[in-house]
Amino acid sequence: MAEQLESTLDSVDEAENKVLQAAESAGFGEEDLHKIGMAVRECMVNAVVHGNRYNGRKKVFLGIDATADRLTIIIRDEGEGFDVNSLPDPLAEENLLRQSGRGLLLIQAFMDEFQIQRVEPKGTEVRMVKYLAKAS
Amino acid sequence: MSVKLTTRQVGDVTVIDAVGRITLGEGASTFRDEIRNLAAKGNQKLLLNLGEVTYIDSSGIGELVSGYTTVTNHGGQLKLLGLTKRVKDLLQITKLYTVFEVFDDEAQGVRSFS
Question: Hey, which of A51, A61, A72, B22 would disulfide with A47, CB 3.0 to 4.6 Å?
Fold first, then answer.
């Protein structure tokens, strides 16, 4: 069941806290909790700032599912969506000094699975998974 | 808690001690303003001590890069000191280890400017 959050930066903290509670209960260690928390923050910032653009009429939906071996997090916004393939590669030499564009790179580095897709009628949904078996 | 910055002079090097979090919002803007201010005042040798920084997100990383560019454009240098393992990991993931000069030892960092 997805939880509905406002398009504000306070929701970033709220989502991080909720996910970390679930992750801690599921048995993840400190280092993995840091990685999961960071991935959630980056994803929530994308949803609030770039997706919903702080629009009070648009919501962010947070789903958390903890099972014996994994934590699955789904974050969906109601923004216009974007083509992930059109984003500049933040690791390309010519982009290293760009101020922004590293959020998705960090999410992918910190989580075991990461999928991003457009949803109808509009919005972007990110699904990310961390496996407990791989916990440090 | 966002970031708290204090500056001190070691010879002609300005050491910036950062404590807290450099994240989207107040932390990142505090950091940006301080670096711009120091560069505009003609400080050209800046050593940023991140030893007490507990958290940096992608916005914070963006501000590090922006600070680097600002100082370089003013003819100066911004170098990093005392990275925690987590910040080192971030610089490696983002390939920024190839951009910044990084030191574990303050005296060594200060000497590197001469």
Answer: A51
Which of A34, A93, A88, A8 is CA-nearest to residue B86?
Answer: A34
> Are A49 and B62 inside 8 Å of each other by CB?
no
Q: Which CATH number covers residue B103?
A: 3.30.750.24
Residue A36 sits in a domain whose CATH number is 3.30.565.10
Judged against a pLDDT cut of 80, whether residue B1 lies above it is answered with: no
Q: Give me the average pLDDT of each 10-residue run along chain A (136 residues).
A: 91 96 96 96 95 97 96 97 89 94 96 95 96 68
Cβ atoms within 10 A of the Cβ of A109, count?
17
- Cβ distance B15 to B49 under 8 Å? yes
Residue in B61, B105, B63, B100 with CA at minimum distance from that of residue B82: B105
Q: Hey, are the CB atoms on B63 and A99 less than 8 Å from each other?
A: yes
Chain A residues with CB inside 8 Å of B68's CB? 97
Whole-number Cα distances in Å, A17 to A38, A62, B40, B96:
11, 12, 39, 29
- In terms of Cβ atoms closer than 10 Å to its own Cβ (0-12, 13-18, 19+), residue A70 is middle
